[in-house]
Amino acid sequence: MKSLLSRATPILFAFALSFLHCIAACAEESVAKYVRVPIFFLTDRNMIGDPKQTNFSFGPHRKYLGDCLHDPFLGSASVVIENVDHKPLTDALKKMGWQAVTVDKREGLVSSALIQAETHEETAAKFYGTVREHCELTPDKNVFVFIHGYKNSFQSAAHTAAWLSYNAERPTILYSWPSVAKIRAYSSDENNVEWSQEHFNDMLTSLDDMCKEDPDIKIRLMAHSMGSRLLVRAIPILRDRHYVTEFAMICPDVDSGLVKHYARRYFNPKGTAKIRLYMSRRDKALALSQIVHGGYTRLGECADSLSGMLSQVMGNRPANDSEEKKEAEADDAAFEETMKQAKHRLQTIDFTDIDTGFIGHKVPAKLICSMSFSEKPGSDLDLIQEASGQRSGLSNTFAKITHLKDTAPHITESCLRVVKVDQKKSSKKAKQKL
Predict the structure, then answer these.
(1) Which of 12, 96, 114, 393 could join 75 in a cystine, given CB atoms 3.0 to 4.6 angstroms apart?
(2) pLDDT digit string (tens) for 20-39?
């Protein structure tokens, strides 16, 4: 018996090694270095090339001049993304169109495909029907809608949208308006984003119809830089839409005074959607935009508490006589109570410490998705309280030069600042030494 066991041991050992090697090999195959992430897109840019071929693209101009046809291009795109989080391709992701990239490739847009039908209405029905099908593959039926900013080509905007989709693992729609994608074309971009407003509003109406057909679908709207103007001007349409669970404005290049006007008229304190403002004090692009616009600050520079700002602009109710004053005081008391309940869904998030590059003005996709689903900034990061109004030095300098200092009372409510966990520990130790 011992002899039999001694002969069998090497065979069993070799079999075990072979089995373990197969498991390791399968694990390596299941985690690709690069993945192809699908996104949906809606764009009113001009088309370059033949849509029947795979090499067509979208250019820097409007789809049409003079006409007002309201028939933007609808389709899907595939973008190569580095699998930085070593995500395995689950069956759900594969069904959504994710694919492993077997050979190393450069990141970026790989292919685009148009949805085509005889009429635009039929095309839209196919488009939103496919979005709904992808929603069914997710645990919460959430859809991300991303609007890019100034100086973005379709390709670069698709890349950013794909990063959001990668981190969220949810279907993502890119709304791409005709940005010229050149530094010198700032005025052209301002003109084109305004021209695109009605097409953006049409998309929101279509999403409204989609969500009425399936009330479980939830929409998260994300706008970067100049793209935030589309979102702000669409507030009258979006107000009280229960299916919109989040509005995120990332480094918004929009006049802060204009936003206050919209907030005063349209903000609903009894709403349920999260409203988040992401800003960075390393953002030099917005400081330059400030000086281009005569010194008036952009919303992404202000670093004010959103709840504090809204309380301030909505609480000012002048009274002409004593009776009106009593009514105003009673209304103010009720308003303050309502705003207290709304504060938990209004956040200003300062991500200066993780903003990269000389210009800054980045889209922190991983942070945004983590905050969306967990209310936390992600691994190795934390949130701490920060005093309201922490603008960049460049913004303050331009305010002094133009003599356009904000005259509103200081907001005492705090904002949230993203810090690295190691940085937070070191700052605590420094305080203890003092």
Answers:
(1) 114
(2) 444 444 444 458 899 999 99
